[in-house]
Structure formats: C-alpha cells, structure tokens
Write a structure and sequence with these properties.
about 325 residues, alpha/beta, Rossmann fold, seven-stranded parallel beta sheet, two-stranded parallel sheet, about 40% helix, globular
Length: about 325
C-alpha cells in the first residue's frame, strides 16, 4: 500500500510514519525539507497551492492520503482567521479536488474542538458539532471539504501527547523536574491521546477501509482517542505522581484566569460507537498509554528541567 502523509514532521505525522513504514510504502509531505532521516522519501508541497497539489498526487499516485497537516495553534487561529481557514479548510478542499482524478482514499484528521463542551460528557460520532473558536470552525469546515470527496473518512482524536515535539505532557515533566509550579486547567476536560496508539489504530482502520467498502462503513466520521477523560489538572497531577514529585507542584486554575485569545470547550472528551466493531477494540485507557509513553521513551530522564518553560500549549 502506498501512503502519503501530509504534516509528516508534526507530532502525529512522525508517529504515523514510524508505524506505517513498517509494512507500507510511505512518503511524507510538508512545506519544507525536514532534517535527518525524515528527509528521505519526502516531498515538499504547500497544499494551499492547488496546482502543485494536483501535480504531486499525479506523480505519487498514493493508495491512501492521510491528511494530518493543520494549523493547530488555537490562539493563533483566533488572531489570524484567514490563515486558519486557508490551512485547515482550503488545503482540504484542494486535496479533495485533486483526488477526484485518482482512486485514492482520503483519511482526514480533525479534532475534538469541533464540539462546544456543553454536553458535559464524552462526545460520540452522532453528536452534532458546534465549535466555539476559529480553530474549531476551520477544522469543521475542513471535515466538510473532506467528506465532499466520496472515498474519505474523518478521524477525530483529542489532546495529543507523544515523542517528537514539545507537548503538554513534556511541558509538565520539564517544570516538575525543575521543581517549579505547573498551572493546569481544572475546567478543561479532554481524552489525552498517545500518538503511537493513534497511529496504530489508524493503521488498523486502513486494513478495513478501502474505496470499495467505504460506503458500507457505519459512519464516515470516527472518534479515535485513548479511553477515558480527565482535566488538564488531573493529567498534570498524574505526571507529578509518576515522577515521584509532590502534587502540590500542580496548581489548579480556570481557563479564564489566563485570558487566552481563543475559547476552549470545557469538556471535549471523546468516545466511539463504531471503532470497536471495525478494529475489534478501543484504544487502551489514557493512563495506561501515558505510563507506556514515559517508560518507552525514557521521558523522565531525557527532558531537561525547564525545557517546557516557554510552551503555551493548546
């Protein structure tokens, strides 16, 4: 199977490449050439350029395009809505139009931020989206663009953590190791999702999704996140516990206290009606996945104290 991964240098893109390259012919795509081994089997393309996008797809003829590229800085999206729409919606429209001339399957990665959080319990695939931020609205429009292409599936994960790029987990580890206080939202609940688990789940889904059977899927929108949900505060407390640090280093705050430009849904935890019947399982609980992340990458030792001091997160 020939797979093209857009955003292949991002947090999820790197995990997808590691996992899928074990059994598939994988090419990465981003707007610039990455450093190191990732530069091999890589194509440079700005997906906002419709003509260049069509040319790349004609040349590569992938069986599957996994669109993991996005502008995910929620506050920047709020401040630059035109850029957010271009990166998160127009690029998807360009892909969908370019794929019309192929037999490729499009797997589009979206977000839990398409929900407003008012439900107060995990969202499944039948819940109606209602985004409250520019980021969420641009991603929802991207979903619509993706679904306009018949051979497409939308996958919604939640808050990502994993190796490759600084994320909330690494930010907390760095500050706790430095003996510093960590402020974490007590009123923002998500389903923390390990990128390695997500990549493995997407790989399994590719085994059952193809152009011939895609119309037989129970839904073309699927939620794929580690099982369970927690607040950012609870997540940070668990990190401190595993580091053997005092939970007193974690200070609970409310989102309004930081005055960030973009609103966040107070509860965007995810659950799924359909994934277990397609791949035979749910992703493991977030706490198990989190412990595996710390153990497998030795994050307790490799993250320098204070390394996450400038990280603002999503």
């Amino acid at each position: 199977m020939k797979i093209l991964i857009t955003g292949s240098t991002g947090l999820l893109g790197q995990a997808l490449r590691r996992h899928l390259a074990q059994s598939c012919d994988v090419t990465g795509l981003s707007r610039s050439i990455p450093a190191g081994p990732a530069a091999e089997r890589h194509v440079v393309c700005d997906l906002r350029d419709a003509q260049r996008t069509r040319a790349v797809l004609r040349e590569l003829q992938p069986d599957v395009v996994i669109h993991a590229q996005a502008l995910s800085d929620v506050d920047r999206c709020e401040q630059e809505p035109a850029l957010a729409n271009a990166m998160n919606a127009e690029t998807v429209a360009n892909l969908a139009q370019a794929l019309d001339a192929t037999r490729s399957t499009l797997v589009h990665l979206s977000t839990d931020y398409v929900f407003d959080g008012a439900k107060g319990s995990p969202y499944d695939e039948l819940d109606a989206p209602h985004p409250i931020s520019v980021y969420g609205r641009s991603k929802l429009e991207g979903e619509r663009m993706a679904l306009s292409y018949a051979a497409s599936v939308v996958i919604r994960p939640s808050t990502l953590f994993g190796p490759g790029r600084m994320n909330f987990c690494d930010h907390v580890v760095a500050r706790v190791k430095a003996g510093r206080t960590v402020e974490a939202f007590i009123d923002q609940v998500t389903s923390p999702t390990y990128t390695e688990d997500l990549a493995e789940g997407i790989g399994q889904l590719l085994g059952v999704i193809d152009r011939a059977s895609i119309t037989a899927l129970p839904s073309r929108i699927l939620h794929l996140a580690n099982d369970g949900s927690c607040s950012r505060y609870e997540f940070a407390q668990r990190i401190a516990e595993l580091l053997g640090a005092s939970r007193a280093q974690i200070r609970a705050i409310r989102m309004a206290e930081q005055g960030r430009p973009a609103p966040r849904p107070p509860f965007s935890g995810l659950t799924t009606r359909y994934v277990p019947r397609l791949i035979g399982r749910r992703l493991r609980p977030w706490d198990e996945a989190f412990q595996a992340y710390l153990a497998s990458t030795d994050r307790l030792h490799n993250i320098a104290p204070g390394a996450g001091s400038g990280w603002t997160g999503c």
